[in-house]
Design goal:
The chain has about 220 residues and is mostly helical. It is built from 10 helices and no strands. It starts with a helix and ends with a helix.
Length: about 220
């Protein structure tokens, strides 16, 4: 009888662990939702995001950790905690590379590019944007690739590389032209036309610049 009770108790242990892990995951999902909810202040959202990250490490599932830390990254950005933003994206990049998760690698590269761009470290920013867009291209993320190309072109224009900047903008427009005309796509197209107008103005090609501004007036309608 004792042996039967012992065997039954041993069988219950994995079931109990599974239940605990399921409960932990539910808590993480709830915290992630609250970390992105406008019902809470940005400071409260950050607390929820940090707790979701802590529980994700406790759960020990890499994909869960990555997703939680990506949300935490956004919370750091909204609160202008740029060094924390950089640090967590470096961690995300390392973990994503270990998992060979191409999309998450590209996202982390793109976010690190933004950090260096914001801090006027344009060589580093350009390098990160370039590597991000290469991965976006390989996995067919055309809108994300277009965004990275646009940011590269802005840096190139600021460095007077007008030919290279124009080439990247035209490539970005080619990528998004076949995509569904969502608000995000139209916004990106507006930004690309605007960048071509800026480049044309820098080259004193004012008629060309006006053409692109007229295109954006049509988009704005």
């Amino acid at each position: 009888m004792f042996r039967q009770l012992l065997l039954f108790a041993l069988l219950l242990i994995p079931i109990g662990l599974q239940a605990q892990r399921a409960q932990l995951l539910d808590s993480i999902l709830d915290l992630r939702t609250m970390a992105r909810s406008d019902n809470y202040s940005q400071e409260e959202q950050l607390v929820f995001a940090k707790r979701a990250s802590e529980l994700s490490y406790k759960l020990g599932v890499d994909s869960t950790i990555l997703k939680s830390d990506r949300i935490l990254s956004g919370n750091y950005l909204f609160l202008d905690k740029y060094e924390d933003y950089k640090s967590i994206n470096l961690k995300n990049l390392d973990r994503a590379r270990q998992l060979n998760d191409s999309l998450t690698i590209a996202y982390a590269l793109h976010q690190l590019a933004w950090y260096y761009d914001y801090n006027s470290k344009y060589d580093s920013a350009y390098s990160y944007y370039y590597n991000a867009q290469k991965i976006y291209s390989a996995i067919g993320e055309k809108h994300e690739q277009a965004g990275a190309l646009l940011n590269m072109a802005i840096i190139q224009e600021s460095e007077s590389d007008f030919v290279g900047g124009e080439k990247n903008v035209i490539e970005a427009l080619r990528l998004i032209e076949p995509l569904p005309k969502t608000d995000n796509i139209v916004d990106t197209k507006w930004s690309l036309n605007n960048q071509l107008a800026i480049i044309a103005t820098r080259l004193k090609q004012y008629d060309v610049a006006i053409e692109y501004y007229h295109k954006n007036l049509e988009l704005a309608k």
